[in-house]
Specification:
This protein is of the alpha/beta class. It is built from twelve helices and seven strands. Strand 2, helix 2 and strand 3 form a beta-alpha-beta unit. Helix 9 packs antiparallel against helix 10. The N and C termini lie far apart (about 60 Å). The structure holds uridine-5'-diphosphate and magnesium ion. The site of magnesium ion has 4 residues, from loops.
Length: about 350
C-alpha cells in the first residue's frame, strides 16, 4: 500500500490567547478523525505560528506542544501581519508534509470540509480553495466593503477566487512554487491563482468568530486591499496616463471654444488664458505622471522578481532518445544514399 500523505494544518495566531486551547483541542480531534478514516498519515500535524503576539498566545502554544504530540509552534520575532505569518507557516510546513491546509485561529472556517479537500487533491488538484457559501456571518460594513473590493479587483483584471479568504489546501508542490515568489507585499489570494496549478473549490458555511475580536483592524484591512490591487495590476497608472491624454485632447477643444468666445462674444479679461492653462497644464501634469508611473510600474515588477515561467512537462528526453537516423527522417532529410 502507498504511504499515506502527511497533512499539516497551518494557523497564524496573533493575540489569540482566548482561542489557543479550544483551537488545539479542535484541530487535534480533526486530525484524529482524518487519520482514523485513513485519509492522511499518522505523522500529520498542526503548525501554530505566533505572529509576535503581546498576550499569552505563545506560552499557551508551548504548553499545547507539551500536551499534544501533533502540535508544533513557530514564534516570529515581531508582528509581521497575517499574510507574512501564514507564509512563514507554509514554508516551515512544506518541509515536513505533502498537503498543507491553512486556516484562521478563530475557527470560523468549517473544518469538516478538509476531508473533501484531501479527496479533491487526490484527483490531481494542487490547490483546493475553501469558498464561503454566503457572507451572513459578517457585519454589514464588512460585507459591503468586501463586495466593493471584489468588484474593483474584477474591473482591474486581477484574478481572485470570489469569497475565498485564506482557507485552502495546497500540495507541497504548490507551496514550493509559491515560495519562488520573493515579494514582500504579500497578497496570497492573488498569488495562488498565478501558480498555474490545477485547482478546485469546496463550499462551506463560515461561522462567527468563536472567541476574541477580529485581528483585522480597518487599517490592516485597507493595507491588505491596497496590496491586493497594487501588487497585481498597473491599471491605475494606465488610467492616470489616459486621463492626462484625455485632458490634452479636451484642451484643444477648449482652445477652439475660447477663440470663438474671444472673437464673437466679449469675455472677461483673463478668462481665455485661465481656461486654456487649466486644461492644458492639467493634461501635461497628468500625462507626465502617467509616463513616470509606467516606468515605476516596470521597476516594481522587476524588483518583485517573480518567476517568469515554469516548465510543467518536457518531452525532450523522448526526442533525444530517438535514433539519429529516425530524427533525420522526421526532419525530412535523407541519409545521403542515392
Ligand atoms: N493574524 C495574524 N497577524 C495579524 C493579524 C491577524 O497572524 O497581524 C491572524 C489571526 O490571529 C487569525 C487570522 O490571522 O488567525 C485572521 O484574522 P482574523 O480572524 O482576526 O480576521 P477576520 O476573520 O476578522 O478577517
Ligand atoms: Mg477570522
Amino acid at each position: 500500500m502507498d504511504r499515506l500523505e502527511t497533512l499539516s494544518i497551518v494557523v497564524p495566531c496573533y493575540n489569540e490567547e482566548a482561542m489557543v486551547v479550544e483551537l488545539v483541542e479542535h484541530l487535534d480531534m480533526v486530525l484524529s478523525k482524518l487519520t482514523g478514516e485513513g485519509l492522511v498519515g499518522e505523522d500529520s500535524h498542526i503548525v501554530l505560528v505566533d505572529d509576535g503576539s503581546t498576550d499569552q498566545t505563545w506560552p499557551l502554544i508551548c504548553s499545547s506542544c507539551e500536551t499534544y504530540k501533533r502540535v508544533n509552534g513557530v514564534k516570529l520575532s515581531g508582528n509581521v501581519g497575517h499574510q507574512n505569518a501564514l507564509m512563514a507557516g507554509l514554508t516551515v510546513a512544506k518541509d515536513t508534509s505533502d498537503l498543507i491546509v491553512s486556516l484562521d485561529a478563530d475557527l470560523q472556517d468549517d473544518t469538516s470540509v478538509i476531508s473533501e479537500m484531501i479527496k479533491l487533491s487526490r484527483q490531481g488538484n494542487d490547490v483546493v480553495y475553501g469558498v464561503r457559501k454566503d457572507r451572513t456571518s459578517d457585519s454589514l460594513a464588512k460585507r459591503e466593503t468586501a463586495q466593493i473590493f471584489y468588484k474593483t479587483m474584477k474591473v482591474l483584471g486581477v484574478r481572485t477566487v470570489y469569497n475565498h479568504a485564506d482557507y485552502r489546501l495546497m500540495t507541497k508542490k504548490a507551496v514550493e512554487y509559491l515560495s519562488e515568489f520573493n515579494e514582500r507585499n504579500l497578497y496570497l489570494r492573488g498569488l495562488v491563482p498565478l501558480l498555474g496549478c490545477k485547482s478546485a473549490t469546496v463550499e462551506y458555511k463560515r461561522e462567527e468568530r468563536r472567541e476574541g475580536k477580529s485581528k483585522y483592524s480597518i487599517r490592516k484591512m485597507l493595507h491588505l486591499a491596497m496590496d491586493g490591487i497594487t501588487s497585481f495590476t498597473d491599471v491605475p497608472v494606465h488610467i492616470v496616463l489616459w486621463l492626462g491624454v484625455a485632458f490634452l485632447v479636451v484642451s484643444f477643444g477648449i482652445l477652439v471654444y475660447v477663440m470663438v468666445s474671444y472673437f464673437i462674444h466679449s469675455v472677461v479679461p483673463g478668462w481665455s488664458s485661465l481656461m486654456l492653462s487649466i486644461w492644458f497644464c492639467s493634461g501635461c501634469v497628468l500625462t507626465s505622471l502617467g509616463v513616470i508611473g509606467e516606468y515605476i510600474g516596470k521597476i516594481y515588477v522587476e524588483v518583485k522578481g517573480r518567476p517568469r515561467y515554469r516548465i510543467e512537462k518536457k518531452s525532450g528526453e523522448k526526442v533525444c532518445n530517438i535514433p539519429p537516423t529516425i530524427q533525420k527522417a522526421q526532419r525530412g532529410e535523407d541519409d545521403g544514399e542515392v
